[in-house]
Amino acid sequence: MKMLLTLRTVHSARICSRRLLASSAAEEASKIVTPNNQSQLEINGGTYATDSWTNVTPKILTHLGMNKHLQQDHPLSIIRQRIVNYFYAAYRNQRGNPLFSVYDKLNPVVTVQQNFDNLLIPSDHVSRQKSDCYYINEQHLLRAHTTAHQVELISGGLDNFLVVGEVYRRDEIDSTHYPVFHQADAVRLVTKDKLFERNPGLELFEETWTGSIANPKRILPSSKFMDQTKQPCHTLEAVKLMEHEMKHVLVGLTKDLFGPRIKYRWVDTYFPFTQPSWELEIYFKDNWLEVLGCGIMRHEILQHAGVHQSIGYAFGLGLERLAMILFDIPDIRLFWSNDSGFLSQFSEQDLQKLTKYKPISHYPQCTNDLSFWLPPDVEVNEGFSPNDFYDLVRSVAGDVVEQISLVDKFKHPKTGKSSVCFRIVYRHMERTMTQAEVNEIHKNIADASVEQFNVQIR
Ligand code: FA5
Ligand code: MG
């Protein structure tokens, strides 16, 4: 279970990061070859001019439209349906119809405004960095979270909805990390009449609050200065009732998925778009594992979307993480497999009956190291970003790379040049690879590194 722990530590620094980082020289240096060095990219029917921000790779773009979360009998589709059905049942209107609507085919190409600005993510927040996102150009990127669609849907008049889709984040490679994974996000807005149905004297907003927020797009200080009790505009009663409802529903979902005896805990956290904010963790195989982030929506976001008389909660969760536990799927890359030996194991006939994954067979790994000198004056994270190297490896070798790790860094005392060593573990999901075959791929990675990063192989 070490893997799952790693996964939590690494990812707690993403969208919810407390670290604020100025852009570094590493960003300037990250240049990934765009498909065929085009100056324009055609993506999902849109045409985008490339610029110095462009870092999407052809390999990453192949994931658009795969819609694994909608593929019949796919484990991600089964999880999606379980979540949707739970919400359909949990919230109904007077006629007995589901209150929530579901958006699961929204275009993953979004603007910087949708992914960050609309959600009040500070302009120097670490999650905006080129080294963390797949940018199409300075204004467009592949969404890094499904929360990117929140404001457009609220502006369109919706008040109870779920968004499901794949998200894209630049990352290292191992059995629990893949640069494309799936999220489900939800928003629920309620008015005073609804929230205080049984306590009509209570108010959503503080009497002393003027109704306007002086500087709504101001950059909030980091979390330790953020009041985890409530936003200044809200009354404590409103926040507490919303918190109670949200936590009740999310614990209900967790029990629906993992059984009534699942151990869980709430952990205070920080997101730029919610206040207060929490993460829900479940106890699984001797470790606490984060399954979702949630909170009371920042009122400025609602105001910008034209909603003035409601309070809302929102959450976002990862589908792979749930599916890996529920189906006992050991490797995140399996979700992209087209092997019938994998796909035929799951069925959505009976959504309550989840079958455990049975490994088809075990194929041996092949491990090769690659060491090179960085160009003069370039160092790790100062002119050379390991994430750029991971992308290059993925572009050249595809899914036969199981894991890459930076095993050694070293600075020559005389020349001042830096050397790095990466360990690449190769393993095919469906067959044994020969050493000759691995060597050839490894050589191609070395050649591409020389070309792209101007390094010298040792
Ligand atoms: C977010 O993405 C926020 N947008 C969630 C949110 C929405 C908070 C609305 C508040 C309101 P975070 O980066 O922590 O936060 O990811 C949310 C969830 O996605 C995690 O709890 C986890 O379940 C899943 N997740 C994140 N990174 C990965 C990953 N690399 N692999 C698998 N699942 C991941
Ligand atoms: Mg998180």
From TrEMBL:
As recorded in UniProt, its EC number(s) are: 6.1.1.20
The Swiss-Prot or TrEMBL record describes its family as follows: Belongs to the class-II aminoacyl-tRNA synthetase family.
The UniProt keyword set, sorted, is: Aminoacyl-tRNA synthetase, ATP-binding, Ligase, Mitochondrion, Nucleotide-binding, Protein biosynthesis, Transit peptide
Q: Which residues form the FDX-ACB domain?
A: 361-458
Pfam families, per the entry: FDX-ACB, tRNA-synt_2d
Among InterPro entries, the record links this protein to: aa-tRNA-synth_II, aa-tRNA-synth_II/BPL/LPL, Fdx_antiC-bd, Fdx_antiC-bd_sf, Phe-tRNA-synth_IIc_mito, Phenylalanyl-tRNA_Synthase
Which SMART domains does the protein's record reference?
FDX-ACB
Gene Ontology terms: cellular component:
mitochondrial matrix
Taking every annotated instance into account, which residue ranges of this chain make up the domain Aminoacyl-transfer RNA synthetases class-II family profile? 165-359
Name the enzyme group at the top EC level: ligase
Protein name (Swiss-Prot/TrEMBL): phenylalanine--tRNA ligase
Traced from the root, the source organism's taxonomic lineage reads: Eukaryota, Metazoa, Ecdysozoa, Arthropoda, Hexapoda
User: What is the annotated localization of this protein?
Assistant: Mitochondrion matrix
So what does this one do?
Is responsible for the charging of tRNA(Phe) with phenylalanine in mitochondrial translation.
CDD domains on file: PheRS_alpha_core
NCBIfam families for the chain: pheS_mito
PROSITE patterns, A to Z:
AA_TRNA_LIGASE_II, FDX_ACB
